[in-house]
Amino acid sequence: MSDNNIQFLLNNELRTIVNCDPNMTVLNYLRQVLNRKGSKEGCASGDCGACTAVLAEVSCSTKATSEKEQLTYKSINTCITFLSALHGKQLLTVEDLQQGKKLHAVQQAMVDCHGSQCGFCTPGFVMSLFSLNKNLPTAKIYNAAAKDETLELSLEQDIEHGLAGNLCRCTGYRAITAAAKEACFTDDVDQFELQAASTISQLKAITATNDMVALHSEGKSLYIPATLDELANLVELYPQAKLLAGGTDLALSVTQGMAQIQSLIALGNVNELTQISETEHTLSIGAMVSYQACHQLLTREYPEFGQMLYRLGSTQVRNAGTLGGNVGNASPIGDTPPVLIALGAKLVLRRGQRTRILSVENFFVDYKVTQLEEGEFIQSIEIPKSDKRKQLKVFKISKRLDDDISTVLACFYLKLVDQKIVEVQIAFGGMAGIPKRAFLCEKALLGKTNCPETIAAAMASLAQDFTPLSDVRASSEYRMQVAKNLIKKCFYEISQASTNVETRVESFSVQRAFNA
Ligand SMILES: Cc1cc2nc3c(=O)[nH]c(=O)nc-3n(C[C@H](O)[C@H](O)[C@H](O)COP(=O)(O)OP(=O)(O)OC[C@H]3O[C@@H](n4cnc5c(N)ncnc54)[C@H](O)[C@@H]3O)c2cc1C
Ligand code: FES
Ligand code: FES
After folding, report:
1. For the domain 6-207, what is the CATH superfamily, name and number?
2. Measured from the CB, is residue 123 less than 6 Å from ligand 2?
3. Between 20 and 30 A from 89 (CA), which of 149, 256, 429, 509?
């Protein structure tokens, strides 16, 4: 059905975009082209959530033996989402929730709980609540879970995570979280649930032919390949084109940096890049898998990695941002690269028909410079499965708990036998122009006993591993001191755990490291 144009459902109405500036955001399209002004622009950088809308897409749920197609709902920041992300999806904005005179349950809850004052943030909150309402387990499960002490996330925490990407300057969050609770416990069946089967068949029809979309407008080009081979050909043919994954970094170059992208290749519809698979020893995560989509798997394998992902951006950012984009972005303060380095993860890089494997550690060369060759891209990230004899510790230091970029991120992956450190890999973000191993620190620890003298030597050696920069987030001295303190914290937690329990440590140091 797709005939070289972007097609999507705006609520339940099929929309076709024939001419498209690749730099056009969904928010500008809604407000300027469609004159739908419910979604607001606050920051245009993904930080305030005023522009939040929801994308629904078809996914498969495997329950017991049957496979069932269903709609998955994701909140996104429309201010940093380019139009290409809509192809084959359903876009729902705040205008779509009310049915006739009847408010949607999440809107009614905001009214009942007095969750709005000036109202500027309200459409964004309502859409985040709508997404929460669609994604949270039912009240029944929560009531049962409340008695289960091993369950990590309570309803309150889920609500906090779901709303952490929305800012309100007037109302105060108590009323809004009360509305969230009310909205999550509703038994209402909404129009989207009633129309799900029809929505699914309409969305499947859009992508049924699996055609590549190529749009050209005023000298600018947008390509949306549908297969890995098409993508590989395009990247070789147009090596200067920008690759778009979730856009949570790239879009900011347009909305904040005022750049204009001339040629854009959007990876979102390449099915092979959204796959997760596992063998006996390895997890393979496609470059386009979002943080949200790999969160459960990574939490199962490495609980501390999963905890850290909950501190990466907001729900809207985690729904869009990808592991491939976080590595490809090559930022010294990207959160996943230090963890991937410490775990010994590898990248599958593709150029034309050729693939090669490179460790994440060797991928980064200099500030924003990587080993990617012209015409090459990241196809997948290969992460070794956890070794139960080892411990992983991840500490993120940032000014705010939620939705904040790291000042320093430290990751320790180590094995102790009778208090002797027999294996150790340590990587830091925010301490150099690239995410990097702390080789001298590792050397000071390897083969030594976990004792105050060993830790002091490791802390001292860190000054030879790194000369951190001063910037808006922190001074060089602060970064060095906090990094040293994290070494102490790591071994303190390990000692505490070994005196308390014999089993594998699953502490929540990520939370406790906030503002350490
Ligand atoms: C509000 C907000 C909060 C944030 N908080 C955090 C945070 O806490 N921690 C953190 O680490 N980051 C954070 N970020 C930054 C951002 O989420 C990450 O950099 C993100 O991982 C980028 O992934 P993406 O899929 O959105 O990539 P994009 O923005 O689409 O791309 C980023 C770069 O990677 C390249 N790229 C993408 N995919 C590939 C590929 N397959 N092969 C080669 N190159 C590729 C692109 O060309 C581009 O240069 C935040 C961003 C926002 C807007
Ligand atoms: S306008 Fe602030 S997140 Fe989009
Ligand atoms: S009600 Fe005014 S900003 Fe939230």
Report:
1. Beta-grasp domain (3.10.20.30)
2. no
3. 256
